[in-house]
Structures are given as structure tokens and as C-alpha cells.
Amino acid sequence: MNIKEKYEVAKKEYEKWGVDVDKVLENLKKVKISIHCWQGDDVAGFEVDKKELSGGIAATGNYPGKARNPEELRKDLDKALSLIPGKHKINLHAIYAETNGEVVERDEIKPEYFKNWVQWAKERGLGLDFNPTIFSHEKAKDGLTLSHPDKEIRDFWIRHSIASRKIGEYFGKELGQPCLTNLWIPDGYKDIPSDRFTPRKRLKESLEEIYKVKTDEKYNLDSVESKVFGIGAESYTVGSSEFYLNFASRNGVIPLMDTGHYHPTEVVSDKISAMLLFFDKIALHVSRPVRWDSDHVIVLDEELKEVAKEIVRNDAVDRVVIGLDFFDASINRIAAWTIGTRNMIKALLSAMLTPNDKLKKLQEEGNFTERLALMEEFKTYPMGDIWNYYCEINNVPAKEKWIDEVKQYENKELSKRK
Ligand code: RNT
Ligand code: ZN
Fold first, then answer.
1. CB of 129 closer than 6 A to ligand 1?
2. Cα separation of 388 and 19, whole Å?
3. Looking at residue 316, what is its pLDDT?
């Protein structure tokens, strides 16, 4: 049987449970994933005087062939995108500005430094998202930025953040779809603080300055990302979950949850429904923490599937901005993007193929036996046959065929980068 024939057989299995599979594939095609550019070069960026990665995050490994300049990064992204079904968005950081060899301070970045990205995105019908880069910098070297005791340092990062939101607005205008500008800072302390209040108060005031400047929400949306700890900031994080949750709800910005930014037994899947009751939109950084916020490539594990289920069965595909945030430097970077993004889409497909109404009803009736029994049976339903067909009709390789393409690209392109 070919892929189409297998699809027809598998489809019948799902239709027995009232799942309209053709409709599912149409809906899946509408979902945009925000694919982070920084997997392509280990969060290095293109600044003329490139700084070492800092802020308590780390990309480990030295797999050869990382992108060294904008042309290479876009070429690599093109390769990855040719292996991922659907039309998506690319998520940029301020350090990916192109300044033509000129040293430009981060508080002086302008839309024009991103015009090549915009043109590239336009030609491909992609959206763009954005992030101020508030780490890997002289003015962040003691681990404090927007909460720093020194007003000059805070003001520098305030100006950078405002400049970044304007770039987000420019992206939205140019590309005809809103850009999400997400703010994350590394601020925290390695050891037990003697004052937890004052840095948080300063962060609150800095953020108020930043968001006092209005951008058009048709073009730019703002989010703030919390964290629990980072390397070198083990004892205290200024921008904690409670901090940003309260800030977001009072200031009309979107809360962003990174799946690696919580305690090990806490799961983001359980938080989504609670957040959806109080926010119009929420945002995610889907990542895979292994023992810490290690940013491993996401695999199709139970938690990823659970996150997808919470988005799909609560009818929240339009309310959750799904961004990815992993960076593994120990494997082929194009493969990393491809594996992770395909997994996110597979998880959504799996959620859409689930008879969610039936399962909800069983719960309401208190029939927990059947709820568990069916959930377990659906795990071995032939989703792979639906997925392969979805890849085929979207002109990307089905099954593992994409691996050969990455290998060819590695031989032809990556191996030449020394
Ligand atoms: C760090 C945050 C943040 C970064 C990116 C590069 O822990 O997750 O989102 O990973 O901005
Ligand atoms: Zn993140």
C-alpha cells in the first residue's frame, strides 16, 4: 500500500470515533509555529564585536557547520523549512541585526538593520517574531539588567527594549501579521539574597517604562517570559513566575511560559487552561529540560502531547502563540530544527485526531475507567499513516526520508564551513 492508501485505511479508524480527518488536516495547516532562528548558530548572532553567550543559558557541543553569517543562517532555515510541513514564523533576536560591519549599540538598533530578514520572509510568506537580547553583553555581565541598581544600566536596557518593540511593529506592518516581541532577562543571584523586594520593584518600574510606549497591536504584541533559575543564578530570579503573571495581567501584556522554566515536577500543560481563563492570549516556548533548563530538542513525549491537547481541546489554537526554544550544538542544527518542529506539529495532529468531546463527556459522567481505557487505546492508533500523508500533500518528505536530504546538505554546504 502506498501512503495515500494507508491514509484511507487509517482515516476510517478515526472516523469511527467521529473525527473528521480531512478537516483535521485543513486545520493543522493553519497552525503557525514560531521557529527560533537561534538553533542555527548556538545563540551567537551577528554583532560585529560578538560576545560570549551569557545569562545562565548554554549551548553545548561543537557539531561542525554552524551558520556564521545571515546568508548561511537563512540558507539553513530554508533547508529546514523545506522539510517541515506548513507555513510558519521565524523568531529573531536583536543580535541577528545586520549592520554592514558597523558597531551599533543595542539601544540604537533600528528596523533598517532587519530589512534583509523582512525581504526574505516576504518572499516566502513567513511571519517574524522578535526578542530584545538582554544578555551576552558588557552591560549584563554581573547578571543584572532591567533590575540593576545602576540606573544607567537599566535605562540602556529600557531603550533597547523599546527599540525592539518598534522593530516588532515594523515586522508586523511589513508582513501583514502581528509580531510577538518577547522579553526575557537573566537577572538573578547565585546566592541567598538579603533583599528580594528591591530588584523586583526596579524590574517592575523598568517594565512600566518600556510598555508605557504604545505600539499598534495590529502589528506588535508583547510578551514577558518568567524563569525559575539559571546557571549562576541558582538562588533567586527577579522575573519569577508570580512576578510576570501579575505584571502581565495588570499591564495587558501576554505571559509567556517556557516549558524549561519551572520546577521539575511542574508541567506547563497543566497551566494552560488556568491561564486561558484569564488572558485572551498566552505564549509558549516549547523546550525540553533534561535535569535543568537544558534546552534539548523537543521529542514527541507525553508532556509535549499533553501541551498540544490543552491547546486543541480548549479551542485555543488562535489564542496560544506556539514558539520553540531549544538549542543543541551537538547534533546537525538543521536536523535539530526539523526534528523539533515536526514533533510539535505531530503533537498537534495527535491532539486533533483525539475524540476530545467523547473523552470530556466520560469525565463529566464520572466514567474514569473508560476515560483511561480509551486514552490508552488511542495511543496506538495509526497516526503515523495520517502524518505521512500530511507530509506528502504538503510537499515535504514523509517518514525518515528527510534525513538523506540533511545529509546531502551537510556534504554540500555545512562541511565547507571551517
Ligand atoms: C532563557 C529563555 C530565553 C532564551 C532565548 C534565547 O532561559 O528561555 O527565551 O532561551 O531568548
Ligand atoms: Zn525561552
1. no
2. 18
3. 98
**CA atoms of 150 and 152, how far apart (whole Å):** 5
The ligand that comes nearest to the alpha carbon of residue 188 is: 1
* Res. 418: pLDDT tops 90: no
Q: Which of 184, 257, 268, 298 to mutate to test the pocket of ligand 1 (most atoms within 8 A of CB)?
A: 184
38: Cβ below 6 Å to ligand 1?
yes
Matching residue, cell 517570559: 225
Question: Which CATH code for domain 32-351?
Answer: 3.20.20.150
Q: Which residue has the cell 510606549?
A: 213
Query: In Å, how far from its chain's centre is CA 174?
Result: 21
Q: Please give the grid coordinates belonging to residue 76.
A: 539553513
84-103 residue pLDDT tens: 999 999 999 999 999 999 99
Tell me the per-residue pLDDT of 367-406, one tens digit each, with 9 for 90 and over.
Answer: 999 999 999 999 999 999 999 999 999 999 999 999 999 9
Backbone φ/ψ region at 169: left (φ over 0), alpha (ψ -120 to 50), beta? alpha
* Residue spans per domain, the chain: 1-30+353-418, 32-351
Q: Report the relative pairing of strands 254-258 and 220-225 from DSSP bridges.
A: parallel
- Read off the pLDDT of residues 399-410 as tens digits, 9 standing for 90 and up: 999 999 999 999
Q: What is the DSSP string of 287-340?
A: -B-SSSS--BPP-S-HHHHHHHHHHHHTT-TTTEEEEE----SSS-HHHHHHHH
Residue 361's alpha-carbon distances to 269, 366, 378, in angstroms, are 20, 9, 16
> What is the pLDDT, as a whole number, of residue 64?
97
Q: How is residue 6 written as a grid cell?
A: 494507508
Number of C-alpha atoms within 13 angstroms, CB side, residue 196?
A: 10
pLDDT of amino acid 347: 99
Mutation to probe ligand 1, out of 225, 241, 254, 268 (largest number of atoms < 8 A from CB): 225
Centroid of ligand 2 to alpha carbon of 14 (angstroms): 35
User: Distance between CA 177 and CA 41 in Å, rounded?
Assistant: 26
Q: What is the pTM of this model?
A: 0.98
CA 149/CA 164 separation, integer angstroms = 23
List, by residue number, the catalytic residues.
Answer: 184, 225, 227, 258, 261, 285, 293, 295, 325
Whether the predicted pLDDT of 27 surpasses 90: yes
